[in-house]
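Entry 14. Structure prediction run on the chain below.
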Amino acid sequence: MTSTNQHQPFRSQTPSPTPHRRYQQTQNNHRPDAPSTAPPTSPRRRDRYQKIHNTPAQATLTTPTTNPTITTEEEKPPPRRKHSDRWALNYTAARQYYEREGHLRVPRGHLERILTGDNGDQEERDLKLGSWIGNQRSRAASLSPERVEQLTAIVMRWA
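Output returned:
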């Protein structure tokens, strides 16, 4: 003889005497970490609330600020390089690597040191050549034909 509820899991027919703690918290809408919607009404708690919530740091976040004026050349940030200038620097590093190693199978974490600037004012820079080569491979479809041609000239492996 087979019963219809044979495949259902066993459930107790009597409810448990005390509900779970989560159930009690949801019933009481008790969330100890939730922020209060209104400041406390007792004087002692109100003073403490003001000390915590009315700090000078928070007051400055809400007040408008004026940009400070930069007075000297040393304080000015260096000008940002254009995308085409950065691409040219990385291409120079790739060409230097190719001339030294004979291939462009650059490890992902490789740093290539190049000299930048004029003859009188040269600066050494470390470029993340491995990352750049990998990015160029993944963006091959969106590169301009001139850039693809430049990279192909130094035997870029596209796949």
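The mean pLDDT is 76.
Filed with the rest of this week's runs.
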